[in-house]
Design goal:
mainly alpha, 8% strand
């Protein structure tokens, strides 16, 4: 019996370095997706109308919908981004599926959410702050969208604890777990599945066509009535 028969050889160091480089590249690309995410969020989210008074700016409406709309749009867009990105990574990077692949997607979505939030909230912020300082009383203008849920406290003293930032990562975890559960390959990657080995230790090549299992030999027919039965010991 050939040692290690039925298993792939251990990955060489070059392949491990290649896998690390690919995962780091994917992580960077996913984080950069926060740029279009932030631009889109800023474009579709309505601002909050304010009016300048002698004592500073106040809300022009008692319960403006802009606060809730900004959070809602960020949650909706973030959930959709997490779903689409996870499906794309699963399909395009099938050789790198597994726990590390899911971790890369989750970290990438967390980074993308942070980038989108910081980019989106700063679009128009300079003009808004200039209006706060120079606008005369009675002037109406708009506060740019920002996330409100949980922004008034911080985790560990410096990390903004905003639940909306976790939505893309949450959807990525859910979708990746479902795809892994539905996969028909135990190792998630078809090329890493066990293959038979030849007697000299080389893996049996896989044919491009559909493999047809050999037909088992038929059992011998019972002797006829005119045939003599073999002697029994």
């Amino acid at each position: 019996m050939v040692p290690g028969a039925g298993r792939w050889p251990t990955d060489p160091p070059r392949r491990r370095w290649h896998t690390t480089a690919v995962n780091l590249g994917v992580l960077l690309v996913l984080v950069l997706l926060g740029l279009p995410f932030g631009l889109l969020w800023s474009a579709v989210s309505p601002g909050v109308p304010v009016v300048q008074t002698e004592n500073g700016a106040i809300l022009a409406e008692p319960s403006p919908e802009g606060f809730i709309a900004a959070d809602g749009w960020f949650t909706l867009l973030g959930f959709g981004l997490g779903v689409l990105v996870t499906i794309a990574v699963w399909v395009l990077l099938r050789r790198y599926r597994g726990p590390l692949g899911m971790l890369v997607v989750v970290l990438g979505m967390l980074g993308a959410a942070l980038v989108a939030w910081q980019l989106g909230r700063h679009i128009g912020l300079a003009g808004y702050e200039r209006m706060l300082d120079t606008a005369p009383a009675g002037t109406n203008f708009t506060k740019p969208p920002d996330l409100q849920a949980g922004q008034f406290y911080e985790a560990l003293g410096f990390i903004p604890a905003i639940q909306d930032l976790l939505v893309p990562a949450f959807s990525a975890v859910v979708v990746y777990t479902l795809l892994a559960g539905w996969s028909r390959y135990p190792g998630l990657r078809p090329e890493d599945e066990p293959r038979p080995w030849t007697s000299d230790g080389a893996p049996v090549p896989v044919s491009s066509g559909s493999a047809v299992p050999p037909t088992p030999p038929a059992a011998p027919a019972p002797p006829g009535p005119d045939e003599a039965e073999p002697p029994r010991g």
